[in-house]
Every structure is written in structure tokens, then in C-alpha cells.
Amino acid sequence: MDNETQANKSSVLLEIRALRIDGMRDDRWHEIVKGIDLTLHRGEVLGLIGESGAGKSTLGIAAMGYVKPGCRFSGGSIHFDGIDMLAASEAKKQALRGVRIAYVAQSAAASFNPAHRLIDQFAETPIQHQQCNKAEAYADAKDLYGKLQMPDPEQIGFRYPHQVSGGQLQRAMTAMAMSCRPDLIIFDEPTTALDVTTQIEVLMTMKDIVEKFNTAAIYITHDLAVVAQMADRIMVLRHGELVEEAPTCTMLSAPQQDYTKSLWAVRSFTKTRLAENTDEQAIISVKNVTAGYGMLDILHEINFDLHRGQTVSVVGESGSGKSTTARVITGLLPPRIGEVLFQGQALPKDYRQRSKDQLRQVQMIYQMADTAINPRQRIRDIIGRPLAFYLGMNPKQCEARTRELLDMIELKPDQFIDRFPSELSGGQKQRVCIARALAAEPSCIICDEVTSALDQLVAEGILRLLDRLQRELNLAYMFITHDLATVKAISDEVVVMLKGRIVEQGSKDTIFSPPHHEYTEKLLSSVPQMDPDWMRNLVAQRSPQH
Amino acid sequence: MGSIVNVILQRLGLGILVLFAVSLIIFLGVELLPGDLCQAIQGQAATESTVAACRRDLGLDQAAPVRYIHWLGNIAQGDFGTSLANGRKISELISVRLGNTFFLAAVAAVIAVPLSLALGILAALYRNSWFDRSINILTLSSISFPEFFVAYILILIFSVKLAWFPSLADVSPDTPFFERLHKVFLPALTLTLVVMAHMMRMTRAAIINLMASPYIEMAKFKGLSRAHIIMHHALPNAWAPIVNVVALNLAYLIVGVVIVEVVFVYPGLGQLIVDSVQKRDIPVVQACSIIFAATYVLLNLTADILSIATNPRLLHPR
Predict the structure, then answer these.
(1) pLDDT digits (tens, 9 = 90+) for B122-148
(2) Residue of B127, B215, B232 to mutate, testing the A interface (most A Cβ within 10 Å of its Cβ)
(3) Beta strand pairing call for A501-507 and A493-498
(4) How many Å apart are CA A113 and CA A63, to the nearest integer?
């Protein structure tokens, strides 16, 4: 590195001092960023980490002098390369955005305009800002697509957003952010929506391109292991305040604050016991199931059992057929071949032919508690409905049982029974969904990515609750997830799926100890580790094979 | 592209089915009318034998299903039968009138559609400004007044006071194009005022509805101007609802012009249908109804197909 770049690197690019931002909620202003200082040097990558509601996204986009509708700046200062972003005119900020500060959003699928080709959305920024003409922008796009290791860089830009995969879209968005060679890129949870195997590929290319162009970046995420790979320095935020700030290595090896330590410790939860009752008859047996939509088979020859008091985790990337398997078991999707047995008795393939008692035995909990409960019903109605429907309870019995169930899910009955879902937090909503499933007194519960949308601390609470309920009620769980840390924590048995087939299955210990199936190996090795060199090492390890 | 062709064929099939159902309803409706057609024609002079002869002449002595199939078969070949009032071929009678109606509708559409889209886009661009508000008030009040009132006000201003345009739109087949245009200007303007509010407000709402999408926010983060964002990012995704409302209003321009044609004494299909109802000229009423229904179905079909065709997922399948 010569002297000039050295000097460049140490100069301050973004300086935020005592920044305060208010958000409107219930017709009142609430402070959501409470006096945060942030300094970013040229070419430096800063990780912002915290749970949802910590204000990290708000802080990130504030660097562009932007607040979301319903928010306002209420104090402090933001200077980008000497420009006062709070005093700058809208036109001046518009000239900076996309050119000197760029943004990469969490959901690439929603952030690309469905009506235009990728390459035109790439070219739009430089053309509109009069940086270059269309032909130059196209050539640059192809070059960047290549640098980001997208397949067929010459042609892929001419596709529409719905025609490429999630991982490719996220790379196309990174390329788009790079189009004007900005000084600063804000990555807002860019890999949260991706599978682990895809995530690592996207992370590698992002890190690579940021280093190549010596771009400074703010990397926002809730995943510690991810930020450890990307950032030079980490800031931990909570409730809009700075908890701790340190270089990545120091932060990982010696966190100072209790909150930071608790974040680090989340992955420590493990299930307390292993039930050894495999000789007993299975509650649910999936026998040789092949199923799909129309003529297309999604699942091929699926076989596995669920036993009382045990958890079977089904893992695999999106599109591997995990949720389709759940739909077959619940009877939502009748299989083409094969059957589902309940205690040795074949269940009717279609849920419409199942008796109330058969339906009652298998209940589901979904990923999005928000959309899985009716926003216009009170908690008492949400939980009371299955009580009346399956068990024929009268209103008085319903109320009594609902209170018991609320106690079981650790929500105070008096406080919660008359609330609407909108008056609950994400974790509380998921608890209500659990109570609703329990209300039917099932013997088996299918949990479809139930913790994926939750923060780690909240997710851990849900896992502990599910574990306790399993012990108390001797429930069988089928746990669908793509998160291997969760699998490690809660399963007795593991089923690994790839493209609608089971590639490996067995007890947790067998699956997690070598030798692995090739795909399981890839899945396991793709889970980010709390080691800043993990990704570099992995890339070095994998590259000779390619 | 295969999927789009399939969708279009499917919609066309459905459209034909709808037309068939409509023809049945029209026929049954006329059947259910009280009284006897021949008695009505001959009035007081009717004797049993003359009525029977008349019924035989008109084929009314046959069973209803037979007559329906006969009628439908003739229409399919472009033969609408003859008018009872003057014995002329209905197809001749209608063709000139229909041409006039289409001409007036076209002139009104050429003014109204671009104007309302432009105003809608501008209203979305300057949302909640004085411009947005006054445009909303103006279009809403013009749609709130009855058509004949708007028409008379326009006549009062433009033909009585200013004398720029004639108050009578009495065109004939040999009226030259520009004179024709001059004559239909006031009725066209009336229709424009009537249909504009709907289209303009839908354009505005469809665009504003999309302004909260993540890709619009992304466009803001790319530093694009508001006008560029609306034209290039919101509008292409807003076509489906807009096209549907435009089609609905275009259909109104053809089907709903009765009052305006009467006020301006314009020789269109609306005038014809009013006259025919008064004269109990049932075959003409039936023919007009079928043409109106066909127009409605065709325009809505076009809107359906256009709104599907503007969906990139269908246009460019994986």
C-alpha cells in the first residue's frame, strides 16, 4: 500500500454525532435512535448489530440523510465527506445518493422493479446522474456481474428479476450499488433471506468487491457470525443506543457488556434429554411418499417416523421440499404415491376426508405468526376456537382452558386474554400460535420455521418453551428449519433433504459427526462461525475443488 | 409467449360465452314484454285474421326456441332483420348511426384519456399540493353534475355567448371531416368532463398505492428524481388498474351517450334506440342492445388482455 492510499484510508468519510431520530407511533413521537456517535473511515467496513427495533436500519439509511416516512431527525449531526447531510438541500442529497452513497436492501426480490430488466436498473443510476452513456453502463454492468461471479455475465442482465434466483438477485443488487463506484455502501441485512449455502457465496463476493474498490461499508445484520466475516469494526446497538464498540477480533474474543455477552451466548441452548423410546410405535409414519403439484413431483420416496416425546428436524435449503412434506402430513396436499400412518393406521390422503379427531392430532405452527392469526380476533377467540371446534367445550370451559393455556405459554392470562394480535410482540404472537396448536390437544405438532422471523434471544425463549411443553405433554415435533444451530439445539433425529429427496437421516449425533453425506457436509460447513478468518479459510479449502 | 396466447384465447372464449348469454337475456326480456307485437303495430284496426297474418309474416307463430336460433343465426351472418317502423334493413339503419357514435366516442376518448392520465400522474407527482386538490375538486364536481346540465352550460358558454361551436351536432354522412369535428366538439367535451374524474383518480391512486413499495424506496436511494420514479418505476406497474378503468369509461362513451346525443340532436345509436323504444320497434332495440353488449365485452376483454400483457411475469416467463 503506498502512502497516498494509506492517507486515504485513514481519513474520515462519515461522521455522525449525537444523532437522534424520532418515530411516530400511536400519534406520539418516540425516540428510536438516542444520541449515537459513529465514525467511518474510507475503505473501512463497520458492522452494526442488534435485535430488531435496535434502530440499526434507521441509523444506516440516516447516513444518506434519509428517514423513513413517519420518522424525523430531532438532533445531532451527520457529515458525509464534509457535507452536512441534515442541512443539505434535497437536490444535493439526491445527487449524492446512488453516486457516492449506495444502498443494498434485505429483500432483493422486492427491491428490484418487476417491470424492468436487471441491466436497465443497473444502468439507470449512472445514466440519470450523467456519469456515462448507456453503452458504457452496459459494459460496466457485465464486467461487474463477472466480478461478482454471476453465471453468464454477458446475458444475465437482460433477464427480469423474477427470472433469476434469490442469491443472484442479491449479487445483481450489489453490482447495482457499485455502478457509480460509491465511497460508501450500506448493506441492510443483505443475506438474511438467503439459505446458508447461498449466503456464503454472496458474502464472499460482497467482501471481495468491497475490498477491490476500497469502498467503505456499513454492514447491518442481526447475525454475529456473518458480521464477524465482513466487518473491521463492530458496533452493538440496543433500543437505539450504543452498547459497545470495538474492532472485530476484540469484540469476539472479549466482549465487555453483559448484553453483548448474552448475544454471544444465545447459541448455547441445547435440549435437555434424549427420549429413548424408538421401539414404541410411531405416532406418525410417512411411508414412501411421492407428491407434487400437477404433473410435477416435488417429493420423491420420503420415509420417516415421528415418535412421542421426540423431535425430528427436517433441514434443507428453500425449495428442497420441507414444507411440502408438512402439507402431505396434514392432508393439504394428497400424495400421488405412498401414505401417512397415524399410530399404524393409514390416514385419509385428503384432509377433507379426515375425521375431526384425526385432524386434531396433527397441528401446525407457522413461520409468520403475523399472518397466521386473525388480526381482528382477540386472543380468547384465537385460542378458544379450536377448543370449541375439536373438543366441543362451552364458553365457560373455553375461558378456563384458555387461561390454563396462556399460563403454559408464560403469558399472564388477565393481561393478555382480551388483547388483539397487534398489541403483542413478535415472540408473544408466536407463543399464541403455540397455545392455539396446543388447544387441540394434538399428539404431533409441525413447526415450520417457527423461529426464523424472530431475534435470537426471543427465538431461544420459544425453543425453551417448546422443549418444556414436549417434556410435560410428551409431544412429537416435526421441526422444519434451515438453521443448523437450531437443529443442533432441539433435535433427536435429523432428516436432511435436497431437491425433494432425503439424502441423509438418523440421530442427531450420527448426522453431526463425520462421515457426512456430501451435501450435509456442504450445509454444515456453510454455517458462519464466530471466527473472522472462517470464511477466508473455507474459500481456500473449497477453491481447489473447483 | 405461449402462456399469453393461451390466456388471450381463454378470454376470447369467455367473451363469446358472455355475448351468447346476453343475447339470450335480451331475447327472453323481449319475450316477457306484455302485449302482442302485431296487435301493437296494427292498433285499433286489428282483427283476429290480420293479426294472425302479421304473425305469420314475422315468423312469430313459431316456438320461441326456434325463433331464437333463427335470430341468432341471422345475427351471426350480419343480418339483423328489418325495422318494423319503416321496413328498412336494420343493418343499414344502424351502420351510419354506429359510425357516428364511434366517431363521437373516439373524439371524446382522444381528449379524455391522455388528459386524465396526464392529470392523474401530475396529481400523484404533486400529491397533496394545491394542484392536486384543485384537480380533484374540479373533476369531482364535473362528474357530480348531471350530463344534460353540463351540456347546457357548455352550450350557454360556447355557442350562445361566445358562438365558437354550434349547439346542434347535426352531421350527415357527407359532412367533411373538419366540419364534423367542429360540430361534435361540444358533445365530446361534455363526455370528456363526465368520464375524466374516474380515470384521473384511478391513475393517481394506482401510482400512489405503489409509492410505498420497496422498489420505489430503492429508486429513491438511487438518487432518482421524483418525476423519473413515477414515470419509470411506478407507472409501468400501475397499468392493470388504470387500463381497466379506461376501458370501462370508453365503453360508457359508446353505451352511455344517449342523453348527450339527445341534447345535441346527434344522429347516433343512442338517438336511434330512444326513437325505437318509443315506436315499439323491437328488432331495432334488440339489435342495438346486442351491439352495445358486444362493445362492452370487447372493451373489457381488451383491458383484461392488456393488464395481463403488462405483467412482466407473463410476458417473460422463466
Answers:
(1) 998 888 889 999 999 988 888 888 888
(2) B215
(3) antiparallel
(4) 24
Tell whether the model's pLDDT for residue A437 goes beyond 90. Answer: yes
Pairwise CB contact (< 8 Å): B215 & A99: no
Q: For residue A542, give the amino acid letter.
A: R
Q: Give me the residue spans of the domains in chain A.
A: 13-264, 306-333+350-526
Q: State how far the Cα of A93 lies from the Cα of A540, in Å rounded to an integer.
A: 41
CB of B274 closer than 8 Å to CB of B258: yes
Query: What HEC string does A142-165 produce?
Result: HHHHHHCCCCCCCCHHHCCHHHCC
Surface-to-core class of residue A441, CB atoms within 10 Å of its CB (0-12 exposed, 13-18 middle, 19+ buried): middle
**With an 8 Å Cβ cutoff, is A62 touching chain B?**
no
Q: Partners of A217 in the beta sheet? A: A45, A185
Mutate to test the interface with B, among A113, A117, A122, A169 (most CBs of B within 10 A): A113
The amino acid that residue A488 corresponds to is K
Say whether pLDDT at B170 is over 70: yes
The answer, yes or no, to whether the previous bond of A515 is cis (omega within 30 of 0) is yes
C-alpha cell at B36: 302482442
Task: Indicate yes or no: CB of A112 within 8 angstroms of CB of B233.
Answer: no
Looking at the DSSP assignment, which residues form a beta bridge with residue A210?
none
Domain A306-333+350-526 CATH assignment equals 3.40.50.300? yes
ipTM of the complex: 0.75
B236–A contact, CB cutoff 8 A: yes
Nearest to A383 by CA among A447, A425, A428, A342: A428
Kindly report which listed range (A175-179, A265-269, B49-53) carries the lowest average pLDDT score: A265-269
Contact with chain B for residue A34, Cβ under 8 A = no
Q: Closest Cα to residue B194, out of B156, B139, B241?
A: B139
The CA–CA distances, whole Å, from B297 to A312, A443, B304 equal 56, 55, 10
Domains belonging to chain B, first-starting first, are: 2-76 (no CATH), 90-313 (1.10.3720.10)
Alpha carbon B9 to chain centroid, angstroms:
23
Contact A483, A319 (CB under 8 A): no
Q: Which amino acid makes up residue A232?
A: D
CATH tag for A13-264 (out of 3.90.960.10, 3.40.190.10, 3.40.50.300, 3.40.50.12640): 3.40.50.300
Chain B residue at shortest CA distance from A178 = B222
Rounded CA-CA distance A89/A9 in Å is 28
Q: What cell numbers appear for B17 in the block? A: 360465452
Quickly count: other Cβ atoms within 10 Å of residue A118's Cβ. Answer: 26
Backbone φ/ψ region at A538: left (φ over 0), alpha (ψ -120 to 50), beta = alpha
Counting every residue, how long is chain B?
318
Cα–Cα distance, B120 to B113 (Å, whole number): 10
Q: What residues pair up with A478 in beta bridges, in sequence order?
A: A312, A446
For residue B229, what is the DSSP state? I
Are domains A13-264 and A306-333+350-526 of this chain identical in fold?
yes
The dihedral sign for the CA sequence A429, A433, A435, A439: positive
In sequence order, the β-bridge partners of residue A75 are A20
Which three cell numbers, joined as nine digits, stand for A292? 407434487
CB contact under 8 A, A124 and B224: yes
A545 pLDDT more than 50: no
